[in-house]
Amino acid sequence: MDKIPHDSIHFRSNITCINNVIIEGRLRWLGHILRRPPQELTHISLFAKLCEWIMDTACRYSRDVRISPEHRITDLEYADNVVLFADSYNEMQVILNSVSETAARIGLRINVNKTKAFSSYVQKVDKMPLFVNSLPVEEVPGFKYLGSTLIANGQAKDITTRITAARNAFFQLTKPLWSRREITIKTKVRIYIAVIRSILLYGSGQ
């Protein structure tokens, strides 16, 4: 981490670094989007550490969610985007309360207008309203995170779109490429990997 001039933060004696920063800065929590800190605290790495501390502290005793036999998670963090996971609405409310209370300890707050709830494979009778500081959280039918959109039936809408786009591109090359015998199999495979598979896997990190 780069050094920050002491005179830009005004450190006080006998107080930890993080407490000094909060005393002088009074940062504000804006739901899953965090506003840039004041001019004295423009160091992104420091600001990210504050957010990371909130999530680690708030979710320390939360029940994680199993996403595979070997993997369990409580939250996802990417830059200023945070996603919380829970197996039930009751558990999610507990996590929200914990995050809100932990953030308040260092002068941050959740903006309920930028906080959304999304559920997958949950019956209507099992749903319940979620609240942040007594304010209701809006529940949405779809959820977009890092370019992927999930819908209530558990599928990712963009995956279907990619499959359709790749299939259309494949058939468009039938006459000019796939059916031409003078073009070698090796060349066709290279074009398939470069064009068709790239369309199918775009943004998937594969």
Provide the residue-averaged pLDDT.
72
Widest β-sheet, arrangement of strands? 1-2
| SSE ordering | HHHEEEEHEEEEEEHHH
Alpha carbon gap, first and last residue: 31 Å
Count of DSSP E strands? 10
Helix content: 40-55%
Q: Total helix count? A: 7
> Low-confidence segments, ≥5 residues, pLDDT <50?
1-37
Characterize the overall form: elongated
The total number of structural domains is 2
How much is the radius of gyration in Å?
23 Å
Strand content: 15-25%
**Biggest pleated-sheet summary:** 2 strands, antiparallel
Structural category is alpha+beta
SSE layout:
Elements: H1 6-9, H2 17-25, H3 44-58, E1 65-68, E2 71-73, E3 75-78, E4 81-84, H4 89-105, E5 116-117, E6 131-132, E7 135-136, E8 138-139, E9 142-145, E10 148-151, H5 157-172, H6 174-178, H7 185-201
Parallel strand pairs: 5-8
Antiparallel strand pairs: 1-2, 3-4, 6-7, 9-10
Protein name: Reverse transcriptase domain-containing protein
Organism: Dracunculus medinensis (Guinea worm)
Domain Reverse transcriptase: 72-149
Molecular structure report:
The structure is a single chain. The chain is an alpha+beta fold and 206 residues long. It has 2 domains: 6-144, no CATH class; 157-201, no CATH class. It has 7 helices and 10 strands. The protein has helices at residues 6-9, 17-25, 44-58, 89-105, 157-172, 174-178, 185-201, and strands at residues 65-68, 71-73, 75-78, 81-84, 116-117, 131-132, 135-136, 138-139, 142-145, 148-151. The chain has a two-stranded antiparallel ribbon with strand order 1-2. Helix 3 (44-58) packs across helix 4 (89-105).
